[in-house]
Amino acid sequence: MNVQPSFDQINRRAWNSRDALREFTRDKTWTDPGEEAAFAWCESECHDQPLLDIGIGAGRTIPLMKQISSDYTGIDYTASLLDEARARFPDTTLHQMDARDMSALPSSHYALTAFSWNGIDCVSYEDRVLILKEMFRVTRPGGLVLFSSHNRDGPGFRENIWTLMPRFTFNPLRYGWRTLRTMRVLPLSSYNYVRHSRFHRNHEGYSIKTASAHYFGILIVYTTLIEQRRQLASLGFMPGVAFSCSDGHCIGDAVQTDDAWWLHFVARKPPAA
Ligand SMILES: C[S@@+](CC[C@H](N)C(=O)[O-])C[C@H]1O[C@@H](n2cnc3c(N)ncnc32)[C@H](O)[C@@H]1O
User: Fold this and answer.
1) pLDDT tens-digit series, residues 192-237
2) Which of 107, 130, 185, 252 allows an S-S link to 100, with CB 3.0 to 4.6 Å?
3) DSSP assignment of 225-241, as one string?
4) Which residues contact 29 (CB under 8 A, 6 or more apart)?
5) Could you tell me if the CB of 15 is within 6 A of ligand 1?
6) Where are the domains of the chain?
């Protein structure tokens, strides 16, 4: 069965929700130590160079990436989030664009092309390939591509509706607060979980599953360190580095990644011959 149209519709509905706007406009800097480490790894060679930021949402990464270079371009396909980003960060080059087709952007131009906070997981696996090919095209030879992706070996993959139940504590106030929070999110989350779990699929190196974000309102691709490295190599990228979201450590080949909800990948486009 082709789940493609529904996959896209489900996630677009989530990006247009009030919950997404609230989440993306919360005062935040780095999502996790791995993101900070991945950008730090790229910083010196991308300093003052052209940067492309894909899936900017309400603009969390704009000030972070502009610290690396003022030659910054951001894109997102969700008009409401882009409007918010424009209002928060005037004088920033922002375009409404789908990452699957960035033909309006020049080839071989950007020193760093980033798609942060697992945005690339929010399209089907076939479309993920289109996006990675587009990221390859717009990046200059020798330049870097950075993105994060949910880890199928990590704790997030085991999330389900029971994960929302209040964790027990002997502190009655805290337990009461947790119970109230569960009661608030449970109805919509259960409804969405049941609706979206019919799209769950397991494949050789990746799975499709709903995630608790936006009340189980999104479908995402979970992949593995090995599969992601294989995919990047098959698309022509040189071997790169990966960082764990939990501690920001660089991940070697034989390392367990089962404590990381997601992983940050940095890959390099081969330099011109
Ligand atoms: C998880 S949010 C991250 C937002 C922002 N990068 C941040 O870190 O706060 C994913 C963002 O990617 C955007 N997005 C998802 N798929 C996209 C696509 N195919 N093309 C462009 N933007 C996309 C969504 O609209 C959403 O704003």
Assistant:
1) 998 999 999 999 999 999 998 889 999 999 999 999 999 999 999 9
2) 130
3) HHHHHHHHHHTTPEEEE
4) 60, 64
5) yes
6) 4-158+224-268
> Residue 118 C-alpha to ligand 1 middle, in angstroms?
8
77 CB within 6 A, ligand 1: yes
For residue 146, what are its two tokens?
């950075």
User: What's phi and psi for 240, nearest 5 deg?
Assistant: -125, -150
- The neighbouring-strand residues paired with 207 are 202, 222
Q: What is the CATH number of domain 4-158+224-268?
A: 3.40.50.150
Tell me the whole-structure pTM to 2 decimals. Answer: 0.92
How far, in Å, from the CA of 133 to the mean position of ligand 1?
A: 17
Phi, psi of 34 (to 5 degrees): -65, -40
| Tokens representing residue 241 in the block | 């580095």
